[in-house]
Amino acid sequence: MSSWPRLLANPRTRYLLPTSFLLFLAFAIGDSCDVIFLRDYFKFTQEDMSNVMATVATSALLMTPALPLFIGYLGAQLSYLWGVVGMSLLTIFFVLGALSAIRWVPIAVFSLSVGFFGSLASISYMEVIRRRCPEDSLVDMFTIENILINAAGMIGSLLGGAGYSHNHFLPFVVKICCFLGVAFLFWLTLYKASDEKDLPLPTVPKSPSQTDQKEEEEGTPQMLAPMPYSKSTLYLSMLTNEYKLTHDDLLSVFHKKNRTRVDIHGHLQRAATIGGDSFSQFVDKAKNEAVVEDAFGRFRQAKTLSATQKHE
């Protein structure tokens, strides 16, 4: 429930909800008076109604497998627009066919409207939601949409019945206006000319616990990506290291001990410990060796000074 305000405030998702409401409002208005309209203007009997339903189901069964090809070629957003515009044009053709009482018009219109354009709009709309809605808010997005769909079905049925009692063609005029409104709103607020695959998806930053849990489930360790450095930065680092090795006895001993781990290609070999000891033990050992080397150095200096004095 906490994602609801964020979904409504996000411009990439808040306009999906009114388009979905208008689309299902158009469906509900048409469905509320289709059967009566077919009986009054096309003189359809119960057997004719059954034939229409069977033809619609068959067309959907045959046309739906080809829809992913259209969506992959046109893109999800453009496919959704084509689906909505196609249904509006078919509704206009349905009204014109009623004026001439052409009996094959309802079969053609319902087959294409439900089997092709309606399925095209529904499937591509799901893809648009997947692209534009954050992954952790999909459940809330579908919850809000389901509420709006039920509200559209209730309101559309009342509007369709009231409109048909006033004028038989009024519900279909309102249905066409809703389809065109959906297409216009979707084009105006959502459609971009750029490639859909390049559009970033807004996501909520995951907490460290969620990241660790995901990596634990996937079995992949958390690793840092290498950071690029310029040549001047690397050169300065090399000079700094050389200076430290010259003036820091402990670091110098540490460097000598680790030179044995460098292979012929200049790569540092993997090692769980340093010289067979733990790191803390190695540091203590290095400190003692540094003290011993310093003592021997002082002894050599004193011996050289004494020999010089005797020679003089």
How would you portray this structure in words?
This protein is mainly α and 312 residues long. It has two domains: 191 residues, Up-down Bundle (Growth Hormone, Chain: A), CATH 1.20.1250.20; 81 residues. 74% of the residues lie in helices and 0% in strands. The chain contains 13 helices and no strands. α4 packs across α7 and α11 crosses α12. The longest helix has 33 residues. It is rod-shaped and about 130 Å long.
Any idea how many domains? 2
What is the number of strand segments? 0
- The chain-level structural class is mainly alpha
Task: State the helix count.
Answer: 13
Question: Which term fits the overall shape?
Answer: rod-shaped
CATH superfamily of the largest domain: MFS general substrate transporter like domains
The first-level CATH class of the largest domain is given as: Mainly Alpha
Helix content: over 70%
Strand content: under 5%
Low-confidence stretches: 192-206, 214-227, 270-277
Mean pLDDT: 75
| First-residue to last-residue Cα separation | 95 Å
Kindly report the oligomeric state of this protein.
single chain
CATH fold descriptor of the largest domain: Growth Hormone, Chain: A
CATH architecture of the largest domain: Up-down Bundle
